[in-house]
Amino acid sequence: MITIPGVDTSMIANNLEPAFPTHPGALLKDEIEYRGISQRKLAAQMGVSYSVLNEILNEHRPLTEKMALLFEAILKIDAEPLLKLQMDYNIRKMRKDSSFMEKLASLRKAAAVL
Asked: How many other C-beta atoms are found inside a 10 Å radius of the C-beta of residue 32?
């Protein structure tokens, strides 16, 4: 995020964050539906179980490095942006976890005294 002393930068286009984090599975699901590929066929071609693939596409399971590389090989979609999207999703979800954020605040206070 860009910060400029004395300026509210929250409305600068490059600083805007979507209201909800995007799971890479949502994008991948749209892509395979657009291409008309069945999830069962794709899972078989990738050598993974249908349930694992379906859970990723329905945002119930994180995208791993292995799965990102499998998607890259079969769909020709670069693995790195997908993994970055997963990391961003994970971090944004954690920032919405109030008990974890309280723990971080407590740790920051303790670290400030060191």
From this structure: 19
Asked if 6 and 71 touch (Cβ cutoff 8 Å), the reply is no
Measured in residues, the chain has a length of: 114
Question: pLDDT tens across 62-109, in order?
Answer: 999 999 999 999 999 999 999 999 999 999 998 888 898 899 889 998
Closest CA to 71 of 86, 88, 60, 91: 86
Q: pLDDT, tens digit, for every residue of 14-68?
A: 666 666 789 999 999 999 999 999 999 999 999 999 999 999 999 999 999 999 9
